Amino acid sequence: MNDMRPHPVLACGALVSALMLSACGFRPLYGHTPEGTGLGDRLASVELGEIEGPNDREFGSALGSQMYPSGRPADVPTRYTLQVRLRAHREGLAIQPDASITRYDYKLTGRYRLTDMTTGKIVHQGIATARTAWNVVDSQFATLTARRDAEGRAIHTLSEEIRMRIALFLATGAAPQETEPLVTKK
């Protein structure tokens, strides 16, 4: 017969791990603060400000969906404004002997700034990057569709990255370390 009870060593290990994590000050990002606010409330205190650059409307919509998945609650006071400046760069990667390009790399960079609305001071800023690529095929329609899909993936990836960085800042008060650009593969 199978005994469904956890092994005592595993149970003891889990208890020790939990105690060690709590002793070092570990707090889950999605947990509540001592004041009782969760990540959703902290993100809801951020108002999306000016977004400039290519695909600004699509990016603003994606970032808004990331920041406020259920809509921005009206009862949470606005404390910060988030501004983003986008820059896109397209580069031919696979160049054939006849000088035709068969693959493009697309890089979308967002320089973001979080401003405290009470003091007007910039409390957090950074640069995030997302990379995607697409193939050029014989069909112009297929190539255009692949390009738009790559741009959409870059927008989604960049909005996730900026949201996560803002969430980390709001949860800890510290900026995350800069990392390599995110690469999204098809």
CATH topology: Double Stranded RNA Binding Domain
For the record, give the distance between the C-alpha atoms at the N and C termini, rounded to a whole number.
47 Å
% residues in beta strands: 25-35%
- Over all CA atoms, what is the radius of gyration? 22 Å
> What count of structural domains?
1
Strand element count: 5
Order of helices and strands: HHEHEEEHE
Mean pLDDT equals 81
Q: Which architecture does the CATH hierarchy give at level 2?
A: 2-Layer Sandwich
Describe the structure in your own words:
The chain has 186 residues and is of the alpha/beta class. It has a single domain (38-183), classed as Lipoprotein like domain (Double Stranded RNA Binding Domain). Helix content is 36%, strand content 30%. The protein has helices at residues 8-23, 39-44, 56-67, 140-172, and strands at 46-52, 80-95, 101-116, 122-135, 182-183. The chain has a 5-stranded mixed β-sheet. The longest helix is centred in the C-terminal third of the chain and has 33 residues, at 140-172.
